[in-house]
Amino acid sequence: MCIAMQLERAGITSYEIVEKAHDIGGTWRDNTYPGCACDVPSHFYSYSFEGRSDWTRTFPARSEIYGYLTGLAKKYGLYDKTRFNTEIKQAKYDEARSKWQLETISGGVLETDIVVTALGQLNRPKVPEIAGKDTFQGPIFHSAEWQHDVDLTGKRVAVIGNGPSAAQFIPEVAKVAGHLAVFQRSPCHVVPRNDEPYSAFQKAMFKYIPGYRKFIRGLIYWSLERNFTAFNEVKKTKFLVNALNMTSTILDQVESHFDAQVTDPHLREILKPDYPVGCKRVVISDDYYPALHRENVSVETAGIKCINATGIETVDGQQHDYDVIIWGTGFESTDFLAPLEISGAKGADLNTSWQQGAEAFLGITMPKFPNFFMLYGPNTNLGHNSIIFMIECQVNYIVDAVKTLISSRAAAMDLKSERMAEFADYLKARLETSVWEKDCDSWYKNESGKVTNNWPDFTYIYEEATQRINPDDYAFTQLDQSEMNNAAE
């Protein structure tokens, strides 16, 4: 959506959106579990060029974000530009014609000059390979595929997993379940959410005071950005420490929140992580710890041996019977663009290129894949700030690339291999000093332990790098004379 809106704003209207689902909205369309909400404040989890003054809360619920997105889609006419219920299974680059051939799962073929993928990193539910999971006789489902027709009232419910999504729906399930068991492989670090509704007076300030909304957005940005110092080694200059008070406050928040909310001695023992803050995604919640203190909630730390017809057997030999099992186990995060098959120039195959782990220049483009760009690609996720900020940076870069292709009358632009190598060296050096390289099991890493998801630096550095393309980073293929004549017409 973001790139479509910015193309419209730039006067570039020759594009089409291909969407496999029936509607726009992505994760906010698909995730409908109880308690689903954003973990970034509303005034920063929105596009800088399409702010709104009437957000109802500091942290918006799923329905409010979804409404915001569908409203923008209608405003910009994106529904008319979208081919719904269409999934691309293969993309092939025709080097002779500088065209991309996109094959759909139904067998159709679309042809285009430029491809921009916007598949996200968290769109394919992950279900662990646990023996017997198909033998359970009751309802069993993933949080991203919530079965709203299953009434949990008074039921014995097991939740497997305790990440950010689980931390949102566990308090809601605990309110109605007869008993809720949370199966925890490892505890998570939690910071307070401090979520409050906006008053009518605050909304009026956002609406009528010039620059106030932008000012608040800036405050939110820097309050989040300073937490990066907890996740990687940085040179704490006098400017950073004194002028911006760049202290790792997230570390203090984790400790104080734990001490204030976890009062039960047994829970204090099993809910205290033994890995650094940020190694796994930090949970933002005011009600997760209190939910675990409820009389009808237990935290199970024994490993799961198998699932059977009536429940779960743990490795200590205990049988736990349940009526419903819910997977809160996250998503397949490191198989970027899967299951899409992509073939580029000179015989390049994306699956082969990424066998050791996905990587791309600025997370956007790669050598031998001309005119192929990604949004929210490798190493562009954040553990401390808003992904909307990163996506806007990427969109800015891609729109500039499109403008460059048009103005230079080029057929294609292909990233130079040496530029990719330089960037890969930069990533490697920065990641080596990051908390994500520490010994913990997180979705930031692939199976070999390579950190493929996170951006290892301040976001303002990424913003500077994506302000515009550097033509020297690319090899350009010019249009032939007939194509130039057609382009001129």
Structure explained in plain terms:
It is a single chain. With 489 residues, the protein is an alpha/beta fold. The chain has a domain at 140-189 and 246-327: FAD/NAD(P)-binding domain (3-Layer(bba) Sandwich), CATH 3.50.50. 30% of the residues lie in helices and 16% in strands. It is built from 15 helices and 20 strands. Strands 7-16-8-9-12 form a five-stranded parallel β-sheet, covered by helices on one side. A four-stranded mixed β-sheet has the order 5-4-3-17, with no helix packed on it. A hairpin with a 4-residue loop joins strand 4 and strand 5. The protein is globular, with a radius of gyration of 24 Å. The two termini are 29 Å apart.
List its traits.
15 helices; disordered C terminus; 20 strands; alpha/beta; 30% helix; FAD/NAD(P)-binding domain
Secondary structure blueprint with pairings:
Elements: H1 2-9, E1 17-18, H2 27-30, H3 62-75, E2 82-83, E3 88-94, E4 99-104, E5 109-112, E6 115-117, E7 140-142, E8 156-160, H4 164-176, E9 179-183, E10 190-191, H5 200-208, H6 212-225, H7 238-243, H8 249-261, H9 265-270, E11 283-284, H10 288-292, E12 297-300, E13 304-307, E14 311-314, E15 319-321, E16 324-327, E17 341-343, H11 350-353, E18 372-374, H12 387-408, E19 410-415, H13 417-432, H14 459-465, E20 474-478, H15 481-488
Parallel strand pairs: 1-2, 3-17, 6-18, 7-16, 8-9, 8-16, 9-12, 10-11
Antiparallel strand pairs: 3-4, 4-5, 13-14, 14-15, 19-20
